[in-house]
């Protein structure tokens, strides 16, 4: 995917900054990896302003249609025990990515390049064609098969000769090029009004959805105050609810109560502790995380250090936790990429369709599919994340930034995509660097773990990537974990795909103090994906 990230460096060479380049990469990835991301999905952005030292953010997720009430869903036969099928049109919330791209440029961009300048490389890719990368070709075929199993065809925009493209096959998408050109000339109105908006509403309503043109016209991004916690000498920044960034922060707060540096990396004790902390943080996050415009999310209590100390006491080092009970705090497919520019600004950005092509519904002559993020809504009337009109669902996509706790100096822009793996990936990559002294590439290369609660079996399931030792897997089984080991090949996608850009070698205690006049950027790109690190 080198040619995608050349879009990044090309924008920087023209005088654009990290925010400009991030939007250019988001658009280019929409072209080259439509089975993960696109303008028919949602985005989140964290931005470090080198001039002020402040971290700012944007919530670019969309809301449910005004007509989409719990009563409507129930009248169609959907309940807590029988929710909408994942690819149903009722799972389409207003796609927020287009507005987020425009607002990222407006709020954080250099003002030296126009929207047309920034989208031009992606337009060229879509109209001129690109060779499909290896991992992308596998995912393209996998999600095409999943769509066909439920009777849905993606169509010619994504299936040349009615088949998913092979690795190395050159593919074009003229419909998407036209969409980008309309947005280039009309801004947000080019997507949320006019031809594209009408095509979105038409395909949704033809397939049983209830979105209206007014739902699209009224959409706005939200400038957010990022949340953070201090772990030893560093400060981890995440997006607030409805994003699940608090899961990473809660886990770090819990882990701070244990002597991690004295444990061997990926030993049974270390992985047991890590997994138990994730269970507690995910139990809290899945219970409390929702749209803060509709419900109170007790963030202050959840992120309090004394609360994490109470939760840490629930961890038994010789026994796996079976419960998914949340605590009681006070106040109670995706792509990720990162850009750091020559001025020291950083943009941590994530963009997603959710499940592959999302719903697989493609607005006529537009070249993109519509996401299915609304599948994260609950059908439980008593749950904070219950479906309702004009409501944002629980969002798994989260970018991250790392600064020095004492000075707020930027240390790292990073992220790991992959649904509920994302906060777990953030914590594992961070600890690999801070506690175990790995550089960015080593931190991403290291085998990872992923724990998720299976509602059907009412059991936590623990996946261990190939590279974790067999004796460790057996010891974790002995402690009561439901272990899946070794997870290898394309199945490693469940452990997410990360990117890291670090400023200086802050993870290395032997490294000389940072010299602001000679800033050295270190980078890493996940071997589980087609990505790469590019500089100039």
Automatic annotation (TrEMBL):
InterPro entries: GGT-like_enzyme, GGT_lsub, GGT_ssub_C, Ntn_hydrolases_N
Highest taxon in the source lineage: Eukaryota
Family to which the UniProt record says this protein belongs: Belongs to the gamma-glutamyltransferase family.
Name of the protein this chain belongs to: Glutathione hydrolase-like YwrD proenzyme isoform X2
Gene name in the database record: LOC105898274
């Amino acid at each position: 995917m080198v040619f995608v990230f050349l879009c990044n460096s090309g924008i920087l060479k023209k005088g654009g900054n990290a925010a400009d380049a991030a939007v250019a990469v988001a658009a280019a990835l929409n072209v080259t990896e439509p089975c993960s991301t696109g303008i028919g999905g949602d985005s989140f952005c964290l931005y470090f302003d080198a001039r002020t030292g402040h971290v700012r953010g944007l919530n670019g997720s969309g809301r449910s249609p005004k007509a989409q009430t719990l009563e409507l869903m129930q009248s169609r036969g959907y309940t807590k025990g029988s929710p909408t099928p994942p690819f149903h049109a009722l799972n389409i919330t207003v796609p927020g990515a287009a507005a987020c791209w425009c607002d990222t440029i407006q709020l954080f961009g250099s003002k030296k390049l126009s929207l047309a300048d920034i989208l031009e490389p992606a337009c060229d890719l879509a109209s001129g064609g690109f060779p499909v990368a290896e991992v992308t070709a596998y995912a393209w075929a996998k999600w095409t098969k999943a769509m066909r199993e439920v009777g849905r065809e993606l169509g010619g925009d994504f299936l040349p000769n009615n088949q998913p493209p092979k690795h190395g096959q050159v593919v074009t998408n003229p419909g998407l090029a036209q969409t980008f050109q309309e947005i280039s000339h009309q801004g947000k109105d080019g997507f949320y009004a006019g031809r594209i908006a009408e095509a979105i509403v038409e395909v949704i309503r033809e397939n049983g959805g209830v979105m209206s043109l007014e739902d699209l016209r009224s959409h706005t991004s939200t400038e957010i105050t990022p949340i953070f916690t201090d772990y030893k000498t560093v400060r981890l920044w995440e997006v607030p609810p409805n994003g699940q960034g608090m899961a990473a922060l809660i886990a770090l707060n819990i882990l701070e109560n244990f002597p991690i540096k004295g444990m061997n990396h990926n030993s049974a004790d270390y992985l047991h502790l890590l997994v138990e902390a994730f269970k507690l943080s995910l139990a809290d996050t899945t219970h409390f995380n929702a749209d803060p415009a509709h419900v109170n999310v007790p963030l202050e209590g959840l992120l309090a250090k004394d609360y994490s100390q109470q939760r840490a006491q629930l961890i038994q080092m010789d026994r796996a936790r079976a419960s998914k009970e949340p605590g009681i705090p006070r106040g109670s497919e995706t792509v990720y990429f990162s850009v750091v520019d020559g001025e020291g600004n950083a943009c941590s950005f994530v963009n997603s369709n959710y499940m592959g092509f999302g719903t697989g519904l493609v607005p006529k002559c537009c070249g993109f599919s519509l996401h299915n993020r609304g599948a994260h809504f609950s059908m439980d009337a008593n749950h904070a994340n219950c479906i309702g009109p004009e409501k944002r669902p629980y969002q798994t996509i989260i970018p991250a930034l790392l600064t020095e706790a004492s000075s707020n100096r930027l240390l790292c822009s990073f992220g790991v995509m992959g649904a509920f793996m994302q906060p777990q990936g953030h914590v594992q990559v961070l600890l690999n660097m801070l506690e175990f002294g790995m550089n960015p590439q080593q931190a991403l290369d290291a085998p990872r773990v992923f724990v998720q609660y299976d509602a059907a079996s009412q059991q936590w399931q623990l996946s261990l990537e190939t590279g974790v030792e067999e004796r460790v897997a057996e010891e974790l089984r002995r402690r009561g974990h439901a272990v899946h080991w070794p997870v290898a090949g394309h199945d490693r996608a469940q452990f997410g795909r990360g990117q890291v850009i670090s400023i200086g070698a802050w993870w290395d205690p032997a490294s000389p103090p940072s010299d602001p006049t000679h800033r050295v950027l270190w980078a890493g790109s996940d071997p589980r994906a087609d990505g790469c690190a590019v500089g100039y």
